[in-house]
Design goal:
With about 400 residues, the chain is an alpha/beta fold. It has 14 helices and 14 strands. The protein has a six-stranded mixed beta sheet with strand order 2-3-1-4-5-6, with helices on both faces. It has a four-stranded parallel beta sheet with strand order 8-7-9-10, with helices on both faces. Strands 12-11-13-14 form a four-stranded parallel beta sheet, with helices on both faces. Helix 5 links the parallel strand 7 and strand 8. Helix 9 (about 275-280) runs parallel beside helix 14.
C-alpha cells in the first residue's frame, strides 16, 4: 500500500445489489466511465463480490462493490447470495439496481427491508431508462432513473450518492485528538523478518499521517534505538507508540512520565470499541483448560514461522494462564456467524477493515455474549502494563479500575 493511496478501510464503501442482469456491472462502468466490470447478457456473470478502490467525484476515495444477483439459483447460487448479503456488514451506502422493464419484486423489497433495518443510506437505481422511463411513477427522494447504456441520469446518480455520504460531526482520528501542534511522538517500529519488505505496515503509515495532519511531529525508531533516542532528544515527547510485539521492552525503556500505548490499542479506539475490549480482557482470569478461542484477523497475509496470531499469542496465553486451549482462526472477509462454542474472541486491530465492518463484528460478538479483546490490549494485559498503556484514554482507564487490575 503506497502512502499516497487512501487505504481501503478508510474509503466509503458503496455496494450494488439486485437481480441477475439488472445491470449492476453496467452501472459501475457508467459511474466510473471505465470498463471495470464484465458485462454480458448471460445471467450471473458476476459470481463473487468484486471490490474496486477508486476516486469518484464528488465523493472522493471510495470502494465500489459489485455483487452477484440475489436471484441466483441452485446450491452454488445460494452460497453466492449468502456472500452478497455478507457485504451489507461493510456497506456505507447501498445501491439497489432495478431493471426498469421488470420493476421492483420480492427480492428488492426483501433487500430494502434489510437495508432499512441496518439504517444504511441507500438509493434505488432504476436502470435501462432508455427502454422504460419510470421517473413519473416512483418516489424520487430515494430513487434515480438512469440508462447505463446511454449515460442518461448518471450525473444525477453521482450527485445523489454525494448527498448520502454521512457528514461526521467530528473527524475521527487515530491519535491526533490527543496532540497539540508542535508536540512530537516517538513511534517504535520493529524491522524483522515479518515486516513487509521496503515499507511500513498499514497502521504505522496511517498513524504517521494522522500525526502530521495534526501539525505534530513523528520520530520513528526501532525498539533497540528507543532508549538512546529519548536520552538525546532534549525534549520530552508527548507519547511513545509501539508495536505490541515489543511492548515489554518499550515499556522498560520509556520513563513513567511519558505516555505509552500501542498501534493496536489506538485502533481499538479508532475502529472498534476500546471500552468493550477492556471489559473483555478480564475473561483471561476465568478461562479453563480446553476452552475454545477464536483468533480473527481482518486481512489475509503470508504467515511467518513465528506469526503473531497463530503462534505468538497462543504461546503467550499458555505461559500467562498455565492452561491449554483450542484455537480456531479466521482472516479476511470470513467471520463465523455462530460464536456459541467460543469462550473468547481475540481480534486484530482491523486496520484493513472499514469502521462499519469492525463495528458490526463487535456487535455480533457482543450479541453472542462472548468476550472480545484485541491483540494490543491482550498483550499489554499479559505483560502487566495494561493500566499504563490505556492511561491516555480516561474512560477506558476508569473501566479497567472498576473491573480488574493489570
Amino acid at each position: 500500500m503506497s502512502m499516497n493511496q487512501t487505504p481501503r478501510g478508510e474509503r466509503t464503501h458503496i455496494a450494488l445489489f439486485g437481480k441477475r442482469n439488472a445491470g449492476k456491472s453496467s452501472v459501475i462502468n457508467a459511474l466510473t466511465d471505465q470498463d471495470l466490470a464484465i458485462v454480458s447478457e448471460v445471467k450471473g456473470t458476476t459470481t463473487d463480490p468484486v471490490y474496486k478502490a477508486m476516486e469518484l467525484l464528488p465523493l472522493g476515495p471510495i470502494v465500489l462493490i459489485d455483487t452477484p444477483g440475489l436471484d441466483d439459483e441452485g446450491e452454488l447460487g445460494q452460497k453466492r447470495v449468502e456472500k452478497t448479503l455478507e457485504v451489507l456488514a461493510k456497506t456505507d451506502i447501498a445501491m439497489v439496481i432495478v431493471d426498469s422493464t421488470v420493476g421492483v419484486g420480492k427480492f428488492e423489497l426483501g433487500l430494502l427491508e434489510k437495508i432499512r433495518d441496518r439504517k444504511l443510506p441507500y438509493v434505488v437505481v432504476y436502470n435501462k431508462k432508455d427502454l422504460c422511463d419510470l421517473t413519473d411513477q416512483i418516489d424520487m427522494s430515494h430513487s434515480v432513473c438512469v440508462s447505463a447504456k446511454t449515460g442518461e441520469g448518471i450525473r444525477e446518480l453521482k450527485e445523489h450518492l454525494g448527498r448520502l455520504v454521512p457528514e461526521e460531526q467530528e473527524k475521527l482520528q487515530i491519535v491526533g485528538d490527543l496532540l497539540e501542534p508542535s508536540d512530537f511522538v516517538v513511534l517504535v517500529v520493529p524491522i524483522d523478518k515479518a515486516a513487509p519488505k521496503g515499507r511500513l505496515i498499514l497502521p504505522q503509515q496511517q498513524t504517521i499521517r494522522d500525526i502530521l495532519e495534526s501539525d505534530a511531529a513523528a520520530i520513528v525508531v526501532k525498539e533497540h534505538e528507543l532508549r538512546e533516542t529519548l536520552q538525546n532528544l532534549g525534549k520530552k515527547p508527548k507519547m511513545v507508540i509501539t508495536d505490541s510485539q515489543v511492548f515489554s521492552k518499550v515499556a522498560a525503556d520509556t520513563p513513567e512520565d511519558i505516555l505509552l500505548t500501542s498501534f493496536s490499542i489506538l485502533f481499538a479506539r479508532f475502529k472498534g470499541d476500546l471500552e468493550e475490549e477492556i471489559r473483555g480482557v478480564k475473561a483471561l482470569d476465568s478461562l479453563k483448560d480446553g476452552d475454545k478461542i477464536l483468533i480473527a484477523e481482518g486481512c489475509t497475509h503470508h504467515r511467518q514461522c513465528d506469526d503473531i496470531g497463530t503462534v505468538k499469542i497462543p504461546r503467550w496465553l499458555s505461559q500467562y494462564t498455565g492452561k491449554r486451549f483450542q484455537y480456531d482462526t479466521c482472516s479476511g472477509n470470513s467471520f463465523p456467524q455462530n460464536l456459541s462454542e467460543y469462550q473468547l474472541v481475540i481480534h486484530c486491530g482491523g486496520c484493513t477493515l472499514n469502521r462499519k465492518e469492525m463495528k458490526n463484528r463487535l456487535s455480533h460478538i457482543k450479541s453472542a455474549e462472548v468476550p472480545v479483546v484485541n491483540y494490543g490490549i491482550l498483550i499489554a494485559a499479559m505483560q502487566g502494563i495494561l493500566k499504563r498503556s490505556i492511561e491516555p484514554f480516561p474512560l477506558a482507564a476508569m473501566i479497567l479500575d472498576e473491573d480488574m487490575e493489570c
